[in-house]
Amino acid sequence: PEHWFGTDRQTRDVFSRVLVASQVSLSVGFVSVVLIMVIGVTLGAIAGSSGGAVDDLIMRFTDIVLAIPQLFLVIAAAALFTPSLTTTMLVIGLTSWMSTARLVRGEFLRTRTLDFVLAARALGAPAWRIMLRHLLPQAVAVIIVQATLWLSTAVLLESTLSFLGLGAQPPTPSWGGMLADGRVDMQRAWWETVFPGAAIFITVLAFNLVGDGLRDALDPRRSN
Of 175, 197, 163, 180, which is closest to residue 83 (Cα–Cα)? Predict the structure, then answer.
């Protein structure tokens, strides 16, 4: 057939728009996750390796941000700025780092008392070297799993923002934006919402399955 997924009200090919929208959603997802990992790993590493007042300060701030519902935080932050893909990436990244920081901190607290770390500290190795050379490699498995699982969440958040008109703006297609456009005539043109919705479902499910598989392979202690 000429149009595999049909056309929308503006006679635009839905299949082509779903494919282009996948680039938008995945790009936002990957960039957002990089930002989440940079902020979360940095703060978690500093808190876990420093301890004391620094750890308390970072963790109390993290707890305060975690107390705010994430979806509300994302929507409120996005509403403050001009809707765009860049804004979406920044908003998701800057409001989603907390769980990563807590996990990395936990790994650092667990490994900082191991023999090889204590030996390096006794030999006079500087704190930054111990952090980068000995503590961070022990947390790589957790970081990889977190990054993979956050990809699915970032895709969902991007779709939510686009559905509400706070993400990608026309004429740039996005799965959330296509759902918003198609809901007007769902009974007569069901394909306008079913196919972008299916794309979101399959993408999120795939990232979650990959994340679970990586967790079982890289961190069997946590998976059990």
Answer: 163
Phi then psi dihedrals of residue 203, to 5 deg = -65, -45
Nearest-angstrom CA–CA distance, 198 and 71: 22
The domain ranges of the chain are: 21-223
Sign of CA dihedral 49, 70, 91, 167: positive
Express each pLDDT in 148-191 by its tens digit. 999 999 999 999 999 988 888 888 889 998 898 888 877 777 88
The Cα 137–Cα 132 span in angstroms is 7
Q: What would the pLDDT profile of 70-124 be if each residue is shown by its tens digit?
A: 888 888 888 888 888 888 999 999 999 999 999 999 988 888 877 777 887 788 7
Query: If you ran DSSP here, which 8-state letter would residue 168 be given?
Result: S
Tokens of 37: 């990992």
**Which of the two residues, 78 and 3, has the higher pLDDT score?**
78
Mean pLDDT of the chain: 86
CB proximity list for 181: less than 8 A, separation 6 or greater = 8, 9, 192
Which residues face 13 on adjacent strands? 7
CA-closest candidate to residue 179, choices 95, 189, 102: 189
Please, which residues have CB within 8 angstroms of residue 100's CB and are 6 or more apart in sequence?
36, 37, 39, 40, 41, 44, 143, 146, 150
Q: What is the DSSP letter of 1?
A: -
Q: State pTM to two decimals.
A: 0.84
Q: 21-223 sits in which CATH class?
A: mainly alpha
